[in-house]
Structure formats: structure tokens, C-alpha cells
UniProtKB/TrEMBL annotation:
This is Cysteine-rich membrane protein 2. PANTHER family: CABRIOLET.-RELATED, EGF-LIKE DOMAIN-CONTAINING PROTEIN. The chain crosses the membrane at residues 588-610. The keyword Chaperone does not apply. It comes from the Eukaryota. SMART domains: EGF, FU. Keywords: Membrane, Transmembrane, Transmembrane helix. The keyword Amino-acid biosynthesis does not apply. Residues 32-63, 157-198, 199-228, 248-291, 292-323, 345-375, 423-465, 466-497, 525-560 form the EGF-like domain.
Length: 629
């Protein structure tokens, strides 16, 4: 519906219309102004009184502002407000860009650096602000994310120069270059968003993570990603500021050394940077070590370490070596030296000498004194007699035989010299104090010593002695067998005798020949079919036992269980001690024979005496009878 007015002075017409000048007191329609006017003069629609946003008044007309201006005055480029996506710079509107120092117009949003795609909200906040819930808010110092400060990163808020930080966010270091780009000492940068600095483990100055330290605080040493307190006994350098070669730090200044590694000298103007007396510096810068002079009596030596340049007190340099000063009477020289103003070493191979260095009194190992000279023992000999060709002790890897030393070899009974190891046939190739292989009768124990007997030998007084012939194994003594060699069988006295080729039921093997069971010389079981351990066969069934050998008891015509007084050895039963008592020595047998002969002699003598006495009595009776007649 068209608006109406009552007179030209009537102000009831809306914007962009006016009340005609000829209007009377009766209502008339409001007439539109020119399209460019916001309001116009009564009676003249082209004469603008005010202009709409985006235009400015020029000679009663409204002219459009620059396309980037939302409001302007006087000219199209004299902007007072900008359209969205542009920022006011003085009286000019320019396109917004990230990091702009002026606020970008984005609808009603404030503190924008750029707009979003709809040009109604902030895309990026202006310097000194943060984006929170889609709105740019001024950094207050307690925000949960870094503040926007142009190219500066990790700012808590901006500095006087908006391209700098006034303080760092999340524990970053304001003094790092660039500002807030690195964590403070003792912190590491997390991988989250936003990045923050998290504390390293205690005593760690630089770390990759909470569990992996890469550099320690003063007074601590790095090992396995962790820092431990330094001690004087360690071999690795302790962190003491920038000082090298420290093992512990000075208690007054943790950036100085108190003790040193690798024989560096803790005293002097620069502790731990020069070597102790008797050592010289070797190696490249940063990895230098102090190496001992070849002569322990050197105070200083050349880089070659073999030539002394200064000696310790009481010594003097002779041909680059430090020789001890002496007098003939002070007995200060070593056993292998003589005094000639300085202590001079005896000639090679002398253990001691007298008067002159070439006058030997005793020799080192492997040499023997011949006159006043030390002459070498034969090859492989460590100690030889006055006759230098007769060896007494061999060197390792040699064995002695008939006074000479020969190289050790495997599969022999000759004992090889292997330091203190015994029963060796050869020495260990890597360690001569151990056996490589053992002599016959021995084998290696768990500790590599030749201290265990092989099968067929028995340990007696720490020596392996071979079991008696025909014994496969023995344990009580060499002649008490536990098992027999092939082709032999066990007897009741634990000896081994040859098997018989064929036996019939009722026969036993006696010394390799078949004999009837039950004889006094039967010491092996009787053949009774497949039955074993029989002393005799059953009278009704010769395939079964009638009686058992000593040590076995008969159960259901079978002899397989030991008697109570017998001991089981493998599958056999023995009455322990019976074997020894059954085995009579030659002396015992001879004694028995002599005893039997004596008994027989006494019996014969007694009978002879009795008969003679009886005959004499008869003669006496006859004589008495004659006299009575």
C-alpha cells in the first residue's frame, strides 16, 4: 500500500520517498526519490538530502563509493568502513590477509585477520588474538592455545613488535632463537596439538621423551637414556658445564672438574686438560686420552711414548730412557741390574748378574747358566738341567719324554704341559691353562678339566686306572666288574670269564668249557632253557630253575629277585663282599694247602705212633706171660 502525507512539511513518508510540495491538508501519496537517494527534497526527487551506505553526497546527488568501501564521504575512495573481506587502512580499504595488523571486516565479527568463505565470520584471527568457539578473542595470558603474533610461534601474548612474543606459551624458552622455538633446559617438545614443553626426568637437561635423556645436568652421567650421579671410579666423562674429562664436578662450581678420567690431571689452571706425570696426550680433539709412557719412570715423554723427555726424581735420561741413579753400596738396583752410577739391566736372558751386565749369575726361564752366560734350553723346554740338553719342565703345548720335549698330540698317554691343568693330551687352542683333549682313560668334566674317567676305567686316588681285562666297566676296584666285554659273562664273584659256545640244560660254563651244574667250581649260572640266574635246573622241568645262584631267591621257579642280603648292580644281584671273599689270593691258597698237609701229616704221625705203641704193649704182655709160666 502506498504511503500518504498531508502537506509538504509532513515527515511521515518513508526513506527513498517525499511528500510533494503542492500537497494540501488533504492526504496525498508519497512520491519516490531518485534511486540513488536515501532521502530527497520536497518537490524535487533528484535532489538528494541524504545518501545510503555505499554512496556519498556530491552536489545533491549520491555517488557510489569504491567497491571495497561500505561507507565513504567526500570521494569514492575516502572510506570509513569496508565491505566484508577487506580491512580499513587509514581511509582506504584493502583486501584482508593473514597476519594483518588491522581488523578485517567479516560481517559483525571482530578481531579478524581473514574471513571465512561466507565472509561473515573470522577465518584467521588478527595478531594478539586466539580463535575460541569460532570467535576471535584477545589473548589474556591464560588461554589454552598459542596467541597469533604474525610469524612468531608459541607466543602466550605478543610483544611490542607484533612479530615477536611478549611471553612463551607451554613452557617454551623466550630466549631461544627464534623466540619460543625451543623448550627450556630440562623440558622436551611434545608431539600433540598444540605443542607444549614437558619436563624431562630428574637431572636431565635435554631429552627426546620422558624416558630417553640425551644430555645430563651438571654432576650426572648419561647411560642407557638415564642420568645417574657421577662417581670418581667411573671411566666415562661426567657433565660439568663445558669442561671435558671430568669424573666428578667441583662442589663450589658444578661447571668445573673435581676429579678426572683417563689419567688426566685434576690440578693446575685447567683441571683435567693435561695428563698426569708419566702420561702423554693422544688422540684427536674431543676424544683425547692419556697414554702411559713406555718407561714408568718418565715424568714426561714424547708423542711416540717410547722416548722420555723428563724423568722422575732419582732417575736420569740415558738414550731416551730413565735409569735409576745409584751407588754401589746402596743396593737400590733391581735383582736383574748392576750399579754403574745408574742401574743398568743385565744382558738378555740373565735373571741376575754381578759386577758387569754380561756376567750372569742366574737365568730366566728357558735358559741355563753355562759359565757366565745364559744359553737357551732345547725347543719347547721351560727349564733344563745343568746339562742344557736335558729338559726338566716343558713349555705349554709340549710333553716331556726321556729328557726331551715334544709337541703334544691327541690320542696318547703322554701328559701335555698346559699350565696347571692335568691329564691333558693337548692344550686348549685359545687358553693354554685348559686341556684341549684328555689322555687315555680320561674325559672332560663340565668345567673342561680332564677329571672324569671314560668307560673301562675306575677313579682311584684321583687317577683313572683301567679295569681288569674282560671287564667292560668296574666301580669297586679294577678286578670287580660291573659289566663284561662282549663274548664274556659275569661270575658270582664279579669277574668276567669267556662264554661257552654251546650249553645244554643242566650244564654251566666253567673257564670256557661245559660242566655239570652243582659242582664246587661253578661260578656262572646253570643253563635251564631260557631261565637265568639258576644254580641248578628243576628235576621235573629242566627249562626252569630248581635252585638259584647266590644272591637270588626262587619265586615261582624264577630267579630274578635279589635276596635281602644282596645288592642289585644293574640287572645282577651280588652279596657285597662275597666276591672278594670268593677270590683267594695265591698266598691264601698256598696257606690252605700247607694247612691241609700239616693236618694230614699229623694224622699219619698219630696213627703211626698209635700202632707202634700198641705193638710195644703186646710184646710186654707176652713177656710177662712167659715169666709167669
Amino acid at each position: 500500500m502506498t504511503s500518504q502525507c498531508a502537506a509538504a512539511a509532513d515527515t511521515s513518508c518513508p526513506e527513498k520517498t517525499y511528500c510533494p510540495a503542492d500537497a494540501t491538508n488533504f492526504p496525498t501519496d508519497c512520491i519516490p526519490c531518485h534511486d540513488s537517494c536515501l532521502t530527497c527534497s520536497a518537490g524535487d526527487s533528484d535532489k538528494c538530502l541524504t545518501c545510503p551506505d555505499g554512496t556519498f553526497s556530491s552536489n545533491t546527488s549520491c555517488v557510489k563509493c569504491n567497491e571495497k568501501c561500505a561507507k565513504c564521504s567526500g570521494s569514492a575512495t575516502n572510506c570509513s568502513e569496508c565491505v566484508s573481506g577487506n580491512a580499513l587502512n587509514g581511509n582506504e580499504c584493502t583486501m584482508c590477509f593473514a597476519g594483518a595488523t588491522k581488523n578485517c571486516t567479516c560481517g559483525t565479527a571482530v578481531n579478524c585477520s581473514t574471513c571465512d568463505s561466507g565472509q561473515t565470520k573470522c577465518g584467521i584471527c588478527a595478531n594478539g588474538n586466539i580463535m575460541a568457539a569460532g570467535v576471535c578473542q584477545t589473548c589474556a595470558g591464560d588461554q589454552p592455545i598459542p596467541c597469533v603474533c604474525d610469524n612468531a610461534k608459541n607466543c602466550l601474548f605478543c610483544g611490542g613488535d607484533i612479530d615477536s612474543c611478549g611471553a612463551c606459551f607451554g613452557g617454551f624458552d623466550l630466549n631461544s632463537t627464534p623466540q619460543c622455538s625451543k623448550c627450556k633446559v630440562g623440558f622436551f617438545e611434545s608431539s600433540g596439538n598444540p605443542k607444549i614443553c614437558t619436563a624431562c626426568q630428574p637431572n636431565c637437561s635435554v631429552c627426546d621423551s620422558a624416558s630417553t635423556c640425551t644430555s645430563c645436568a651438571n654432576g650426572y652421567i648419561l647411560g642407557g637414556g638415564a642420568c645417574t650421579a657421577c662417581t670418581p671410579s667411573q671411566t666415562e666423562a661426567c657433565t660439568c658445564g663445558s669442561m671435558p674429562n671430568c669424573t666428578t664436578c667441583d662442589s663450589d662450581s658444578m661447571a668445573k672438574c673435581a676429579t678426572c678420567v683417563n689419567n688426566f690431571d685434576p690440578d693446575g689452571a685447567s683441571p683435567c686438560q693435561s695428563c698426569l706425570p708419566g702420561f702423554f696426550k693422544s688422540g684427536s680433539a674431543g676424544s683425547e686420552t692419556c697414554v702411559a709412557c713406555a718407561d714408568r719412570n718418565c715424568k714426561t715423554c714424547s708423542v711416540s711414548k717410547d722416548a722420555c723427555t723428563e724423568c722422575k726424581d732419582g732417575y736420569e735420561i740415558t738414550d731416551g730412557k730413565c735409569e735409576k741413579k745409584c751407588t754401589v753400596d746402596d743396593n737400590s738396583c733391581s735383582m736383574n741390574q748392576v750399579c754403574d752410577t745408574i742401574c743398568k739391566d743385565c744382558t738378555s736372558n740373565c735373571a741376575t748378574c754381578a759386577g758387569m751386565v754380561s756376567t750372569c749369575r742366574s737365568c730366566i726361564a728357558g735358559f741355563v747358566l753355562q759359565g757366565q752366560e745364559c744359553q737357551a734350553c732345547p725347543d719347547g723346554c721351560a727349564n733344563c738341567a745343568d746339562n742344557k740338553d736335558v729338559c726338566q719342565i716343558c713349555k705349554d703345548n709340549f710333553f716331556i719324554k726321556d729328557g726331551a720335549c715334544a709337541a703334544c698330540k691327541d690320542n696318547t698317554t703322554e701328559q701335555c704341559q698346559c699350565n696347571v691343568a692335568v691329564h691333558c693330551a693337548t692344550c686348549d687352542s685359545g687358553e693354554a691353562v685348559k686341556c684341549g683333549t684328555c689322555v687315555a682313560g680320561y674325559k672332560k668334566a663340565m668345567d673342561d678339566s680332564c677329571s672324569v674317567c671314560v668307560e673301562g676305567y675306575i677313579m682311584m686316588k684321583a687317577i683313572c686306572i683301567k679295569c681288569e681285562a674282560k671287564c667292560k666297566t668296574c666301580s669297586q676296584s679294577t678286578d670287580v666288574c660291573d659289566t663284561c666285554e662282549d663274548g664274556h659273562q659275569m661270575t658270582i664273584n664279579q669277574t668276567c670269564q669267556a662264554n661257552c659256545s654251546e650249553l645244554t640244560n643242566g650244564n654251566a660254563c666253567v673257564n670256557g668249557s661245559a660242566a655239570n651244574c652243582g659242582g664246587l667250581d661253578q661260578i656262572t649260572d646253570c643253563k635251564c632253557g631260557a631261565a637265568s640266574n639258576c644254580a641248578s635246573c628243576d628235576s621235573q622241568n629242566t627249562n626252569k630253575c630248581g635252585a638259584c645262584m647266590v644272591g637270588y631267591k626262587l619265586e615261582n621257579e624264577v630267579c630274578s629277585t635279589c635276596t635281602d642280603d644282596a645288592e642289585q648292580v644293574g640287572s645282577l644281584c651280588f652279596i657285597r663282599g662275597e666276591a672278594e671273599s670268593n677270590k683267594l689270593s695265591g698266598g691264601a691258597v698256598a696257606g690252605i694247602v700247607i694247612a691241609v698237609l700239616l693236618v694230614v701229616g699229623m694224622l699219619v704221625g698219630g696213627i703211626f705212633w698209635y700202632m707202634k705203641k700198641s705193638k710195644a704193649a703186646s710184646a710186654t704182655e707176652e713177656q710177662s706171660a712167659g715169666m709167669q709160666e
